[in-house]
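Chain X:
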Amino acid sequence: MVLLVPKFRNRLVIKWFVPMLAKPNIRVTLDQLGSYCWQHFDGKTTVQEIGERMSHDFSQPVDSMYERIGKFIATLARDRFVLL
């Protein structure tokens, strides 16, 4: 899965500079587990439920899934892809 993220967030830059760019977005490629998490982030499903589903679907221990999801969410929040 690929996320498209705008290169700029400033309204003036978006209005005047972005239309001249050939590629106004940055492409962020997610791995298999990151894509799975992203598809299940709906505002209703808890991290615990996502971890249990991932553990079942990928045949890995639940504890490692929670650690992986936590790092993924922290990275998304740091890069401002999601708001917590």
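Chain Y:
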Amino acid sequence: MHTTLPQTQRLGNLANILYDWLPGSAPPFGRTHTFSDSARENGLERYWPGGSKLPAIQYLLEGALLERRLVPLIITVTREGIRYRNKKGQPITREEMEALNKALQELNYKIPELQEPSFLNSLPAAKGFSHIRELTPSTLEMASFLSRYAQMLQNPDYQSRGYELQGFLHDLFESFGLKPHGPFRVIGEEIDGSFVLDAEIYLLEARWRKDQARKGDLSSFSDKVQRKSEWTRGLFVSISGFTKDSLDAMTRGKSSNIVIMSGADLKSVVNSEINLNDMLRTKVRKLAEKGELVADA
């Protein structure tokens, strides 16, 4: 018996939230409660494989779901996690607890004591940064994005598609925690939007035209990015893709300040085949290490 694919994805989200709540194994000095202890306390020790922490947590959660022991396991991890994080001086925040409750709700679970207003009000608010690990949109959210993308494909008006694309990307980036801004104008220039990835600011160019983006399109956007600051970067989204000579020209003999995304790339994201943030990081790394602008055809 196995978890379903949607359950597996949602349990992965839950594992990310719980990752910092307890150590995976006991430290060499002193004694503290661990995920291994929580598994044993709830009769789930056979589902704690050890090794790499995040996959081990997900495996434990999958076992708990199959054994109908998910609720008591979560209560144990929460109780001990509060103690552990308080000792570290990094108490679990209300934002983290609300993320946990949301993730459980997506699995059709509700633990009333974790949603009690008096309990939530007793937790500190996040300050400066959140201890929540990077989250991904729920399965329902991604299904909604897939449906919106399919509807845009049916629109025969390419100019209308372009405007729809700007709003679509804003909502998609927001769901992945990229803090997007909508279109704006700066000194006579129109910017399709911006977002933040790993503390780096990216300007956005979003196009849905019949033809592929050409060298002049990429060069113009690169110049627009360069005029803002030395540390600004850019993402050029062209649903119809890019001509080969445009990519060659942008990386030949000079450094580039932009990365690119095609319609095939975007389709992989909305089909939940790849995490948006991971895709962008891969593109940035290839550009930094090999000077390559890459996009799926």
